[in-house]
Here is the input.
Amino acid sequence: MAPTYHQLRRLHFRLTLKAWLQGLDKALLAYAGVLPIGFLAVLAVFVLVQAEALKLLVSPESKAAVRIAVVAGWQGATFVLLRALREAVLMPKARVFFATLPVSPASELRSDLLFAIQGYSLLWAPLAWVAFTAQSHQAQLTLASLAAVSLFANLALLRGKALNAAIILALLFVLSSTRAETRQVLAFATSRLAIAALAAFALWLSYLVDFPLPRARRSLRAGGLAYQAALASGLALPFLAHELRSNVAVRLGFIACTLGACLLLASQRAEGVAGTRVLVFVGAAAAVALYPLPALWRNTLLSKLPFLAGQAAFVQRIRLPVYGISILLFGAALAVAWHFDAGESHPATAVTFSTMFAGGVIAARLGWQIASWLMPLLNFVAVLILGGML
Amino acid sequence: MNNPLLCLRQLVLSRGALPELTLDFAAGVHLIVGPNGIGKTSLLNCIAGTLPPRSGTLTLDDQPLKTRSAAVVLAPNMPPDISWIRARLLFDFVVSLYPASRVAPDEAESILVALNLPPNVDAPLGTLSAGTARKLMLAAALAARPPVMLFDEPTNEIDAAASDAFRTMIAAIAPRHVVLITTHHASDLASLGGQVLDLAALQPALMGSKRGVGGR
Here is the structure.
């Protein structure tokens, strides 16, 4: 029997995730095997921190600014996660082909929604926990409407439907800025449902109608400085700007989030107590996030321009930007962390993570699959030792 | 650059169905024909250095070809999958990799004109038709003009006028370059007077090497 559109999407989702998780699953098993308590602690902290934040959202005492911050945090986390899983969840590379086939928008929407919901995976845990413990229909409705509208916004954003996404994000803002009124339960429930329905309608429209927005025409002027830089870099710079932009943004976002979390923890400590060792955490995050970048960048160039892969001049030209910019990004992350660390970390910290970054870069360049799980594991152990947790 | 000689010695490709190859290609046009999947494109990729051979050697004027990558250009049978790149940037970049052999800028422009490309050079590659993108890759190879020029099914998808212009330009430069062209339509390129290497004819010779047709 011929497979349905949804069955094809499910197969694509599974195979893409399987390829994406190759190595990562080994890393998780290694954590669980070597450091079972630490692994559980990381998971528990992950769920608890989010649950605490979501409790603020449903608390009647929370101010609007706090609720908006929580919703923004949830929206940011889910967007980054779905952006990382975009190929698995939305199958964008094959969309052009499927657009030529008589696949109904409803089938497309159904598949997108189902796989996005599955893509959230662990993020449902804190949401379910708070909904279960809140014991209030208003709180549960608040959480459900937040999750739904945020999911709709993510789908519209990831499908490049800017106008629909803007409308849904505006509705999300309205949702987050209104507080639950205990005396007007019916009105509150109606307004939440209406907002969620409007957001769903805006998403549904994005599957039916295209609202093209005028795009700024960006072109490198032949002979200009940027044009010459593009040629001199072996096209590495324009590839970074076009092909790897989102990938690099996610990696830098991960480092920035780690830095932000360290600063948040440090700010909540009482005076006179030692602060968080920012250099340790940010150094590990930067090493793990950035070590695959040079190999990824180089392989993207060589695979996109296969007919030039045998050209020595091409390979030489891409070397400096690919390795130089990656090292600069890592160095910048360490420098920022050093600034906020204020000498709390051991002097060997920067050298340790720099060595691991260099080792990871070499391993990735040589195509050693082992690096995909060994690098996160080694950095995790280094954090435990240098962070004084063992 | 006088009469370059490309030699393949006991070459075994890592793809395709070809036996061990020992072939000489002197300056001139060589049409490589054969059924789908036999290894025409793999042979060109191997000479271009993008597909390492399983065994054997490639030399150009008695020097290993891998040390002279700037002596070979390949016009692929499909344009690269980079929809955002401006046609002009890709053209200039490919040509810039051949500083020793590339033609003067005005001659490069005349190649673009001959293939009717100027209206499209500022457009992103993804917006070009298949034929126009193919012509861009041909123009880049013709402007790079190293001693060994490889064209993978160059006349597929391009219009008749561009096909004529391509043949005219190849005929003019062939006496000083080794030009290998894979094709399923040898009759279209018969006017170039090149030698025809039928890879299907080599296939039965699975035992040992076979001397192929060459320019000498």
In short: The helical segments of chain B are 40-48, 87-96, 105-114, 130-144, 160-173, 199-202.
